[in-house]
Amino acid sequence: MAVIAVFAVASVGAVGSARAADALAPPTLAALLAGFRTMPGFEARFEEEKTLALLAAPLTSRGRLFFAPPGTLLRRVETPNPHDILIDDHVVRIATPASAEAGAGAPGGSSPTGRRVETIDLARRADVRPLVESMLWIFSGDLGELASVYAIDYQVLAPASSGRWQLRLEPRREPLSRLIRELAISGHHHGADRLEITETSGDRTTTRILDANPARRFAEGELERLFGLEAR
Question: Which of 75, 99, 125, 183 is the most exposed place for a label (fewest CB within 10 A)?
């Protein structure tokens, strides 16, 4: 589902490459999240693979991710089926080329640029709202909110000199625990480079983050161009 796909990319956005004086993994999750809070913005490439029990071969996709504080995230899928997924103000907006939805009768409206935009109000989706908001808690470094929803296991992996760490999040309660079994995020120094989401069905989504820029600053007009889905 789209909101799981959004989380799969967003939550591994993290904080980029390490400084020479900060070569070890953060000793605690609080220290890791503190680094996330320093980002002025974020951009990266992603490669995603989804393994489904009913399919012989995994589904793959590639694209770009953009984040602008305090809570606007865009996942732009470039291949194989181009579309945008925007999260802003607790609303998810999915924009696809109008031709992709022709005759499908999908809910939503058409934008002036000819794209079809579907809106998901997270206030009405108690099953997935904690998952999507978890991503924003990670970006904003909100350990308290994460701990209220997940049992947390953060580890610095051996040897310590590798600078690698792993974060495992297991939902504490329903309805989220009916949807996903575990989120496993791993990274190097102060950056995350891999996320694996295991659903209760056994389906698994693995995302790799590449060429991350955790110091992305958006020029005047860029925010509107990137995040301004017209049918908002």
Answer: 99
**For residue 132, which phi and psi values (nearest 5 degrees)?**
-65, -45
The pair of structure tokens assigned to 86 is: 């925007």
Tokens of 27: 């000793």
Prediction pTM value: 0.81
Q: CA-CA distances (angstroms) from residue 231 to 76, 108, 119, 169, 193?
A: 17, 9, 9, 34, 33
Q: Tell me how far apart the 2 most distant CA atoms of the chain are, in Å.
A: 57
Task: Decide: 197 and 1 in contact? Cβ < 8 Å.
Answer: no
Whether 12 and 95 have beta carbons less than 8 Å apart is answered as no
- Model pLDDT for residues 144-202, shown as the tens digit of each residue: 999 999 999 999 999 988 999 999 999 999 989 999 999 999 988 888 899 999 999 99
* 10-residue stretch averages of pLDDT, the chain, 232 residues long: 56 48 81 87 93 92 90 91 90 82 48 76 86 80 92 94 94 93 90 91 94 88 76 34
Residues 42 and 130: their CA atoms lie apart, in Å, by 22
Give residue 126's identity as a one-letter amino acid code: A
